[in-house]
């Protein structure tokens, strides 16, 4: 896909962008809702109405029955989910259509179907519940809904796994192996009861015996931002700051999560920073825009990024600029909204509604 903004929008000075965004918001009034993910640039967050994680923002999108126009400053799968959860007379726009998620792209429909064909030999949907992380294309959410599964986010992954095991013996979790593994360990599943389905290998690189014994079949996918964090980063900050608290996102590798004081979704991280006593020192393992915002919001606390040497920026979240936002607000009538077609929409909705019920 090729996308470029008209020159007028590319070259406008920041102050002009801010002013015109503010004017457009005033003109659109209550028709408009701008949702911004925690990983967005600071100036984009400041221009939005509500900031949140993918779970919180989906919930809000589903509740906003009177809003006509939702501008979702995030990545593609988030805007798709918002479109699925809203009614057909509401329009959802993604200001930068190139903002995708590399982790979501690690689970291709054809590969997941091939895996599922094989897993049918182990009972298919009689014994295995598919759990799709929010970071997937709508087609995969539809697959999940069709086969009695649900969507999870890092906010409700524990509850989603419990929900699944109350119904069937095994879980097929995609596409983030780390979130799946960390959640499984939290609920007491043994490491040897999990296997990783490597989609690049014949039959996932697994034997019949391995799958038969597994409780959780994890897709071999990851987030390149969160897998930057290493256990030695935790050791280093603990050596440098004896009273430090280390908080990481569950998309980080298990060895990092194990060494941290706590792990949780972006909403959890935000709450942790808010509730930490004044004077606290906190190292965070997640995307840098969120960390920088926490450091600015709580100047009475020392908050910084865990690795100290890398800059864990999500380039995809970073794509959305004030220029894109203004262009969308001033030209939405000529732009194509995000639209998930039937039957994908209805099938994905089943899985998303289950997600919203499971907390
Ligand atoms: S931080 Fe990772 S999982 Fe989140 S949007 Fe970026 S690449 Fe995807």
Q: What is the topology?
A:
Elements: H1 7-11, H2 14-28, E1 32-37, H3 42-46, E2 50-52, H4 54-63, E3 69-73, H5 76-85, E4 91-93, H6 109-119, E5 128-133, H7 138-146, E6 150-152, H8 157-167, E7 170-174, H9 177-186, E8 194-197, H10 208-213, E9 216-219, H11 231-240, E10 245-248, H12 254-259, E11 262-263, H13 266-275, E12 281-285, H14 288-297, E13 302-305, H15 315-318, H16 322-331, H17 344-357
Parallel strand pairs: 1-2, 1-3, 3-4, 5-6, 5-7, 7-9, 8-9, 10-11, 10-12, 12-13
The structure holds iron/sulfur cluster.
Iron/sulfur cluster binds at residues 39, 75, 101-103, 135, 223, 225, 287, 314, 316-317.
Give an account of the 3D structure.
This protein has 359 residues and is α/β, with parallel strands linked by helices. It folds into 3 domains: 7-100 and 317-339, Rossmann fold (3-Layer(aba) Sandwich); 104-223, NadA-like (Rossmann fold); 226-313, NadA-like (Rossmann fold, 3-Layer(aba) Sandwich). Helices cover 43% and strands 15% of the residues. It has 17 helices and 13 strands. Strands 6-5-7-9-8 form a 5-stranded parallel sheet, with helices on both faces. Strands 2-1-3-4 form a 4-stranded parallel sheet, sandwiched between helices. The protein has a 4-stranded parallel sheet with strand order 11-10-12-13, sandwiched between helices. The longest helix is centred in the first third of the chain and has 15 residues, at 14-28. The chain is globular, with a radius of gyration of 21 Å. Iron/sulfur cluster binds at residues 39, 75, 101-103, 135, 223, 225, 287, 314, 316-317.
């Amino acid at each position: 896909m090729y996308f470029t903004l008209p020159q007028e929008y590319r070259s406008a000075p920041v102050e002009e962008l801010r002013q015109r965004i503010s004017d457009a918001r005033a003109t659109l009034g209550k028709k408009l809702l701008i949702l911004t993910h925690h990983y967005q640039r600071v100036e984009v967050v400041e221009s939005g109405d509500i900031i949140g994680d993918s779970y919180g923002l989906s919930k809000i999108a589903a509740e906003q029955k009177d809003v006509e126009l939702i501008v979702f400053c995030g990545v593609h799968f988030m805007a798709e989910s918002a479109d699925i959860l809203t009614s057909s007379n509401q329009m959802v726009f993604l200001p930068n259509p190139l903002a995708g998620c590399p982790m979501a792209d690690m689970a291709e429909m054809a590969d997941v179907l091939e895996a599922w064909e094989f897993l049918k030999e182990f009972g298919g949907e009689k014994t295995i519940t598919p759990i799709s992380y929010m970071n997937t294309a709508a087609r995969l959410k539809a697959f999940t809904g069709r086969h009695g599964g649900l969507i999870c986010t890092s906010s409700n992954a524990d509850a989603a796994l419990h929900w699944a095991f109350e119904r069937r013996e095994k879980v097929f979790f995609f596409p983030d192996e780390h979130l799946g593994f960390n959640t499984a360990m939290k609920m007491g599943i043994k490491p040897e009861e999990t296997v990783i389905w490597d989609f690049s290998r014949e039959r996932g690189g697994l034997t019949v015996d391995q799958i038969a014994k597994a409780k959780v079949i994890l897709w071999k996918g990851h987030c390149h931002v969160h897998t930057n964090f290493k256990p030695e980063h935790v050791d280093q900050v603990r050596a440098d700051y004896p009273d430090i608290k280390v908080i990481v996102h569950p998309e980080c590798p298990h060895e990092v999560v194990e060494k941290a004081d706590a792990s949780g979704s972006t909403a959890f991280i935000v709450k942790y920073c808010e509730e930490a006593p004044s004077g606290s020192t906190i190292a965070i393992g997640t995307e840098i825009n969120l960390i920088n915002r926490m450091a600015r919001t709580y100047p009475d606390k020392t908050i910084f990024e865990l690795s100290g040497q890398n800059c864990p920026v999500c380039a995809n979240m970073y794509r959305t600029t004030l220029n894109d936002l203004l262009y969308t607000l001033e030209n939405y009538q000529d732009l194509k909204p995000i639209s998930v077609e039937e039957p994908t929409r209805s099938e994905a909705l089943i899985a998303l509604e289950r997600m919203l019920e499971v907390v």
